[in-house]
Each structure stands twice: as structure tokens, then as C-alpha cells.
Write a sequence for this structure.
């Protein structure tokens, strides 16, 4: 198994996709796989009716290759595979090669065949029986159909038969770019990176917008925020803009008011700035890491009042999740450690006890006094720095 170990069969999910959607989905996925593996040497990708074959350079490090493949959205599962002509004797022989050293008298096993080509003369259960019997004879290993230690899978198509014993669970979801663009309100906390991850998973390209308190654009560029956005894009080797907006103008304006509405007013200010950037970037929706009732500023009522500052749809992929569930994902995707590094963002300095049931009329009255439209215009004109995260 020298060069064969670098062949992977890739099966994608969401098979209900039909017609033109399916074509777009496949083209996106091909593009994303090529992008994600681009730095790992020569990659050949062949598309068949319902699966791809990825042929990687023999020098590509297996562990990195597999880790990358498993994180590409739109893939249901992937497996390092043997590729042989779809003939019964060749299939049996290859199965015996694969079993050698892996299936032993101490390991239970099963053969699981899928006949993608209905013209193939032997039906799946019969393939299972014949190949299974040959393996028992060669290895004396016990067959166990439920929960075996090793499952040898055989998939038979017109072009070839594929045999593998190591199915790797894929990330699921839709290929990034298949669904369109969104703009994420991205803080230094735990939640919004997870929200970005969820939108990536649903096939969205995500642009980033962060509001900061740094005295200079350079300090914002040196902050952990850039590293966090990079961590989310890195598995896909995806490039995206990060907008670093100073909240200075808003802070100066609000500082003369001692009000429990400052937090909600600030969030509405963020929405207004976000909407204007989204318009320029053709981003269809805004994204936040809000979750109902998680903190005082995120009561149902406040979420409503904040949301009314923007006309664009606001997506809140974490809205019904518990904090612990969010933390678990943050750990999985590798943003948690950066999230808990100390960082002072604008939300941390507003009223210590924010109004938990903000009144829209009162907030609007406050915004009028702040001359919020002018603050938004001036912030956009002079206080937003655009950084491209590239790979
Ligand atoms: P997070 O962990 O994402 O910071 P959080 O639980 O701390 O969330 P809040 O601080 O109330 O919640 O923020 C709610 C949402 O508002 C965030 O998930 C994010 O989408 C947005 N947000 C908060 N602070 C900022 C910021 N400084 N820049 C951009 N967006 C922000
Ligand atoms: Mg926060």
C-alpha cells in the first residue's frame, strides 16, 4: 500500500440538492478542496457521479492531509482507499491484501458493500458473503455484523471499485461559498468565533467586523483579534477581510451621559456601522454570537431592540445554545484559548448594570442626542481599518 494510501474517496452530504444547485455545490466543493490542500504538493481531483477521488502527492504528510480533509465543509466522509477494476476476483484479492495484519483472530470484522453500479452482476449481500468467507479462511477472524472492530467497505461503481477500512467522519454542512456572503460582528470573546464557524458550516463566506478601543489602528492589527480570525480561516486556507473599527467617537459622545442604556445604544451603533459595510461588500446578512438570556444585555427584549437598528437580516446561530455547548465547540475548533486571553473591548466598559429591558423609544431619544447618524458616518469615513487575512 504505497502510492494507494494517498488516494481518498470523498463523499459529500446534503444529497437532496438537485439540478443546478447540485452542480454549484460540487464545483464549490472541488474548489475548496483544492484550496485547502494547495500547499501540500500536487493534488489531482476527479469527479464522478456522486463522489470525488482525491489523489495526493506521495510526499504529502498523511496526518495533515486527513485533518484538512475532515474540516472541509460539505464532506460527509472521506476514506483512504484502494482503487481497483470492478471485478469480483480482483475485489476479493484486494480485500485480502487490506485485511492482512489488520483483521486477525483477535478482531471482529464485517464486510459492508454498496453497489453504486446496479449492472454489477453480484448483489451486495452476496459480495459481503463471498469476501467475508475469503477473509475468514485467510485470517480465522470472527465475523460480527453489529459493532465490529473493523469494517471493510466495498463500493462498486462503473468506473472502479473502492475498498477501505478507515472511514473518516467529515465536517458535514455545505461548501463555503455555496450560500453567499455574511458579515460577522466579531468580538474577542468565546461566542462570536463559534458563530462564524457555524456560518462557514452552512456554506457562507464570512467577512469580519470588530470594534476596538485601541488608540491606534496598528495596535488593533497587533491584537489577538487578527489571530482569532486567522484561526477560523486557516483550516480552509480561505482569505477574508477583517474590518477594525475604532469605537472612539461613540465612546466620547456617550461619556457625558450616565445611562443604563449605553450598552444597547452601543450595540445598535455597531449594527448601523455593520450594515453599511455589509452593503459595500454585498453581504446579505449580519451575524452575531448572541444567545438568549446569556448575559444582561442579551435578554429577548434587548435582542429585539438591538436588531431594529439594522434592516438587513441578523443571523444568530447560537441563539438557543447553552454556554457549555458553545465552549465545547470553541475548544474543538481551537479558538477557546485565544478567547479567554484578557482583552478589553468596548462592551466591557459600558454601564456595569445595563438596562435588561430597554425601551426602544428611550434608546431612540438618546441616539438623537448623540447625533448617531453623524457618528456612524464619521466612524466609517475615518475610523475603520481594513485588513485582509490571506493564505
Ligand atoms: P462573545 O463571546 O462573542 O463576545 P458575549 O457573550 O461576550 O459574546 P456580548 O459581549 O454581549 O456577548 O456580545 C454579543 C455579540 O455582539 C457578540 O457575539 C458579537 O457578535 C457582538 N459583539 C460584541 N462585542 C463586539 C465587538 N467589540 N466588536 C464586534 N462585535 C461585537
Ligand atoms: Mg463579548
Amino acid at each position: 500500500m504505497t502510492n494507494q494510501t494517498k488516494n481518498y474517496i470523498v463523499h459529500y452530504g446534503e444529497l437532496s440538492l438537485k439540478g443546478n444547485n447540485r452542480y454549484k455545490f460540487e464545483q464549490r466543493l472541488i474548489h475548496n478542496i483544492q484550496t485547502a490542500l494547495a500547499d501540500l504538493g500536487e493534488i489531482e481531483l476527479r469527479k464522478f457521479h456522486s463522489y470525488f477521488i482525491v489523489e495526493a502527492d506521495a510526499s504529502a504528510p498523511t496526518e495533515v492531509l486527513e485533518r484538512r480533509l475532515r474540516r472541509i465543509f460539505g464532506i460527509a466522509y472521506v476514506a483512504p482507499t484502494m482503487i481497483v477494476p470492478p471485478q469480483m476476483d480482483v475485489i476479493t484479492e484486494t480485500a485480502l491484501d487490506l485485511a492482512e495484519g489488520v483483521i486477525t483472530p483477535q478482531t471482529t470484522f464485517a464486510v459492508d458493500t454498496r453497489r453504486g453500479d446496479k449492472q454489477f452482476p453480484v448483489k451486495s449481500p452476496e459480495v459481503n458473503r463471498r469476501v467475508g468467507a475469503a477473509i475468514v479462511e485467510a485470517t480465522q477472524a470472527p465475523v460480527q455484523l453489529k459493532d465490529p472492530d473493523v469494517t471493510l467497505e466495498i463500493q462498486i461503481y462503473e468506473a472502479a471499485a473502492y475498498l477501505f477500512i478507515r472511514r473518516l467522519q467529515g465536517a458535514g454542512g455545505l461548501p463555503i461559498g455555496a450560500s453567499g456572503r455574511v458579515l460577522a460582528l466579531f468580538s474577542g470573546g468565546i461566542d462570536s468565533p463559534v458563530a462564524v464557524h457555524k456560518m462557514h458550516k452552512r456554506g457562507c463566506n464570512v467577512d469580519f467586523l470588530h470594534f476596538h478601543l485601541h488608540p491606534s489602528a496598528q495596535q488593533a492589527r497587533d491584537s489577538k483579534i487578527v489571530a482569532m480570525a486567522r484561526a477560523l480561516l486557516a483550516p480552509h486556507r480561505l482569505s477574508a477581510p477583517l474590518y477594525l473599527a475604532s469605537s472612539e467617537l461613540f465612546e466620547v459622545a456617550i461619556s457625558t451621559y450616565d445611562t443604563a442604556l449605553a450598552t444597547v445604544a452601543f450595540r445598535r451603533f455597531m449594527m448601523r456601522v455593520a450594515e453599511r459595510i455589509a452593503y459595500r461588500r454585498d453581504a446579505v446578512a449580519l451575524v452575531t454570537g448572541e444567545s438568549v438570556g446569556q448575559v444582561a444585555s442579551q435578554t429577548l427584549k434587548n435582542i429585539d431592540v438591538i436588531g431594529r437598528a439594522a434592516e438587513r437580516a441578523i443571523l444568530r446561530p447560537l441563539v438557543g445554545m447553552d454556554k457549555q455547548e458553545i465552549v465545547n465547540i470553541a475548544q474543538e475548533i481551537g479558538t477557546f484559548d485565544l478567547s479567554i486571553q484578557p482583552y478589553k473591548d468596548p462592551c466591557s466598559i459600558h454601564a456595569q448594570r445595563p438596562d435588561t429591558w430597554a425601551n426602544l423609544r428611550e434608546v431612540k431619544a438618546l441616539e438623537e442626542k448623540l447625533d448617531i447618524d453623524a457618528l456612524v458616518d464619521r466612524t466609517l469615513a475615518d475610523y475603520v481599518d481594513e485588513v485582509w487575512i490571506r493564505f
